[in-house]
Design a protein that fits this description.
Blueprint lengths: L8 E5 L5 E2 L2 E2 L3 H11 L3 E5 L6 H10 L9 E3 H12 L4 E5 L2 H9 L3 E2 L6 E4 L7 H12 L3 E4 L5 E2 L6 E2 L1 H12 L4 E2 L6 H10 L6 E5 L2 H10 L3 E5 L6 H5 L7 E3 L16
Parallel strand pairs: 1-4, 1-13, 4-5, 6-7, 6-8, 8-9, 9-12, 13-14, 14-15
Antiparallel strand pairs: 2-3, 10-11
Helix pairs in contact: 3-4, 3-7, 5-6
Family: Belongs to the HAD-like hydrolase superfamily.
GO molecular function: hydrolase activity
Organism: Herbiconiux moechotypicola
Length: 265
């Protein structure tokens, strides 16, 4: 793994690293601008498969962060890229929102309820018993079981909500079949992101706020890993795990250059 000064490309988580409850974390806007000024390729990653990159770009802009949609990589995009590589022009039955359905359409997939190659479960706020029942029957009939991300719950202002991992667990219980999960902590999420920007593991850094997804996947992908304390991880949480990130910082503000960046002539 590279030293920080050898890093040429960056991957960064979104929630807990750049934003917290729709407010930008101090230093995030400046760090994004620093990468742009330095010409460093980067992607903002999220396990959330509900929204398209365009939607997320607009949400970040409303929070005060400028991130064009082409600089956003979601678990939905990673899933679509994986399935396109596995079976170009395949078919899928999808439980999810625009993020995953749009990504699969753009990858050339056909959405169908009739003998699909894959059943794909993504994030949604409108899970239906009918759709879950159909997914179970299709998987039992031979469709391959794919999940965009393993998160069991998601946040809301009222408290936790059941998320993709919880619905996948229900389907696994009913079918006795485990899904293939594409999003973090699968390092494939990072490898597909690096492919998107032409990055290599030996000179790529990953910034995250979770030991169990961002850091472990970054380590397994061979990246320089940075954990920030602006999300869910504190020293007690970090101590629970047998592995450690390359660096632990209070926030992304510590990654800002001390001197203005100057292009060499």
């Amino acid at each position: 793994m590279s030293r920080r000064d050898e890093i040429e490309c960056w991957l960064t988580d979104m929630d807990g690293v750049l934003v917290h409850e729709n407010a930008p974390i101090p230093g995030a806007a400046e760090l994004l601008q620093q990468w742009r000024d330095q010409g460093k390729p980067y992607l903002v990653l999220t396990n959330n498969s509900i929204f398209t990159p365009r939607d997320l770009s607009a949400r970040l802009r409303a929070s005060g962060l400028e991130v064009p949609e082409e600089f956003i990589w979601t678990s939905a995009l990673a899933t679509a890229a994986f399935l396109k590589d596995q079976m170009p022009g395949g078919s899928a039955f999808v439980i999810g929102e625009a993020g995953i359905t749009t990504a699969l359409h753009e990858a050339g997939f056909i959405m169908t309820e009739t003998a699909p190659d894959y059943v794909v479960i993504g994030e949604t706020r409108n899970y239906s018993f009918e759709a879950i029942t159909k997914a179970i029957r299709l998987i039992n009939a031979g469709s391959r079981f794919i999940v965009t991300n393993p998160d069991a719950t998601g946040p809301s202002t009222e408290g936790p909500l059941p998320a993709t991992g919880a619905i996948a667990a229900l389907i696994t219980k009913a079918t006795n079949k485990e899904p293939y999960v594409v999003g973090k902590p699968n390092p494939m999420m990072f490898r597909s992101a690096m492919n998107r920007i032409g990055a290599h593991s030996e000179n790529t850094g990953m910034i995250g706020d979770r030991m169990d997804t961002d850091v472990v996947a970054g380590i397994e992908a061979g990246l320089h890993t940075i954990l920030v304390r602006t999300g869910i991880s504190d020293d007690a949480e970090i101590a629970k795990y047998p592995f450690r990130p390359s660096e632990i910082l209070d926030s992304v503000a510590e990654l800002l250059a001390q001197e203005p960046f100057e292009t060499e002539l």
